[in-house]
Each structure stands twice: as C-alpha cells, then as structure tokens.
Amino acid sequence: MSHEAVLTGWRRTWHEIIFESDTPAGRAFDLLLIFSILASFGLVVLESVASIEAGYGWLLRAGEWLFTILFTIEYVMRLACVLRPWNYATSALGLIDLLAVLPTYLAVLLPGAHVLISLRILRLLRIFRILKLGHYLSEAAVLQRALAASKPKIIVFLLTVSALVTIIGSVMYVIEGPEHGFTNIPVSIYWAIVTMTTVGFGDITPKTPLGQLFAGMVMILGYGIIAVPTGIVTSEMTRQAKKADEKVSSQCCMACAAEGHDADAKFCKYCGAAL
Question: CA nearest 142: which of 263, 260, 241, 261?
C-alpha cells in the first residue's frame, strides 16, 4: 500500500473519538453530535414559522451559521482522520455529512437554498454508531443483503407495474374521455397509478358506470399488487437471516471509515487496509 499502514499521533486519537463509540470520549462525541443535529434541525423548523421568524429571524440565522461552521470543522476533521479521505467522502455517510454543510453556503449564492438544511436530519443515521453492537450491525447486514438480493425481482415487478398502469390508463381514457376529466393518456396513467397504489386523491374520478366498474377492478388489483414487493423482501430476509450467525465487529476502518467487518477480519473488505 502506498500510504501509511496505520494512523499515528493526533490523527489516531481523533479517529477513535470521531469514528469510534466504544470509548467514553467517542460516545460523548456521538451524543453531542446527535444533540447538535437535532438542535440545528429545530432552528430550521422554527424559521419556517412566520411569526417566530419575524421576531427572531436574525437569532435563528446566527444559530444556523454557528452549527454550519461546527459541522464544517467536524467534516474536515473526519477527512483528516482517515488514510483515504476520498473513500470516506464518497461513502453514503460522507455524502450526508457534506450535504449537512453545503446548503448554508449555497444560500449565499442561491437564495432559498437554505431550506435544504433540513437534510441535516439524515445525519441522525449516525445514531447507529452509538448503538454500535454486533447484534445491530449483524441485523443491518441481513437487511442490506436481502435488499440487494431482491433487486432483480423488484426491477421486474416495477417494469410489470409500469406496463400495467399504462394499459389501464389507456383503457380508462377510452372509457371516460376528456369530458370526464381524462383529458389525455398521461393524465389517465396518473389516475391509474394513484388508484392502483390505493392513494386515491380524488382529483380525477370516473363518471360513467363502466368507468366506475373498471375503477373498482383496478382498486382490488392494487391491494394484491402492493403485497408483492413486501413478500419478495421478506422472503429474502428470511433466507439471509439463516446465514447471519457470524459475529460482526464494531471496528471502523482507519482508511475509509467503513464498518460491518467480520469479527476475525484483519483487513477492511472494502479498501483492503489493515484493521
């Protein structure tokens, strides 16, 4: 490997505090981070209330910038405390961390972009770091593998449903026509999607007896279709759970910050760095 094998000095110390939660300092850092995320999101919620924004807008914006600066420092520290910063920056949690700080800076150039600050709530995914026990990581791995294994079946299912709603929408367009609100086939397909998913906005409804009969059949069909993806994922979860007897380590890779390694793993299964 071209770069150093392990972290040393202050980088190793801060890595244990920022990325690990099996030490008092690491756990305290994670708890403080969760509190900061909730407080930051609370400011966004309060700013959306016109009466509060009118009286305390300047204070809310000051708090928003304070949290942005703190999150920016934290993000830079995370990049500095791993051997391969790019691997972390392009990971799911790394991108979420970046999205937590970008909106405030973008708002300076693009008015209105500050509303994206609500994306900071996604950082609450880090609460699993506080609960970083083998049991939770093992269950998360089962769910991840089940979703991955279900992907081909789900894609086929979605393609089938897409074709089905297209046919249903076209038939309803022929039955009802523009005079009853089904002005074109795309609008009719929209109605088919809303009806088949049992959402039922009611903005477009069939008026003729034949159309109402056809709509009833689509509604009944929708109940059966909704159960299909649930069954697919559940089946895969049951299958994967039988393979999940192995223990999972709570160790976080010092190079790319990845988790979920086997308990006896010596190297990261994502980047190959020594654990």
Answer: 241
Which of 142-151, 186-195, 218-227, 249-258 is the least confident region? 249-258
pLDDT at 75: 93
* Alpha-carbon span 145 to 169, nearest angstrom: 36
Return d(Cα 243, Cα 255) in angstroms, integer: 28
Q: Top-level CATH class of 140-241?
A: mainly alpha
Look at residues 118, 64, 120 and name the one whose alpha carbon lies nearest to residue 96: 120
Q: Enumerate the CATH 1.10.287.70 domain ranges in the chain, comma separated.
A: 140-241
Start and end residues for every CATH 1.20.120.350 domain found in the chain: 9-132
Dihedral sign, Cα of residue 273, residue 87, residue 249, residue 243: negative
Ramachandran angles phi, psi of 267, nearest 5°: -135, 150
How much is the pTM? 0.62
* Contact between 257 and 83 (Cβ < 8 Å): no
The per-residue pLDDT for 3 is: 42
* pLDDT tens figures, 219-271: 999 988 888 888 888 888 787 776 655 555 667 788 787 776 776 777 887 78
Superfamily of domain 9-132: Voltage-gated potassium channels. Chain C (1.20.120.350)
